[in-house]
Write a structure and sequence with these properties.
The chain is an alpha+beta fold. It has 3 helices and 7 strands. The chain starts with 7 loop residues before the first helix and ends in a 5-residue tail after the last strand. The relative contact order is 0.19.
């Protein structure tokens, strides 16, 4: 079994920024509030990011008109999707898995600011790219 954590340092910094936002804001706000706070925190911590990038979806080498818009792309290689829900469900997980497929990136982090009493995070690895 491979115990190597993909993009360990970058992931640690990203989740640290998420915890910082959660520690200051707590749960109960709309996702848009956490999105804005996290963008500020990424900037304050010098974490490279693009907010809501347009990701082209392809079918057999054809670009589709529809595109995905994840919440953040950090370090040009990690997809971040945030939620503000009581609990994450499989629809949320499927969303980030599809983002990884569409981008052909290796790592996605799903973050739920709505969970109480603590922040919820899940890591997803695109096994086809590892």
């Amino acid at each position: 079994m491979n115990d190597i954590i993909l993009f360990k340092e970058e992931s640690y910094r990203i989740t640290g920024a998420c915890f910082e936002v959660y520690n200051h804001m707590g749960s109960g706000f709309l996702e848009a509030v956490y999105q804005e706070c996290l963008a500020i925190e990424f900037g304050d911590q010098n974490i490279p990011f693009v907010e809501q990038p347009n990701i082209i979806v392809k079918y057999k080498h054809h670009a589709l008109k529809k595109h995905f818009v994840p919440d953040f792309l950090c370090y040009d290689k990690i997809v971040i999707e945030i939620k503000a829900e009581k609990n994450l469900d499989n629809i949320d997980r499927a969303q980030i898995i599809n983002y990884l497929k569409a981008t052909e990136l290796q790592l996605g982090i799903l973050v739920n600011f709505g969970h109480y009493p603590k922040l919820e995070t899940e890591r997803f690895v695109n096994l086809k790219k590892v």
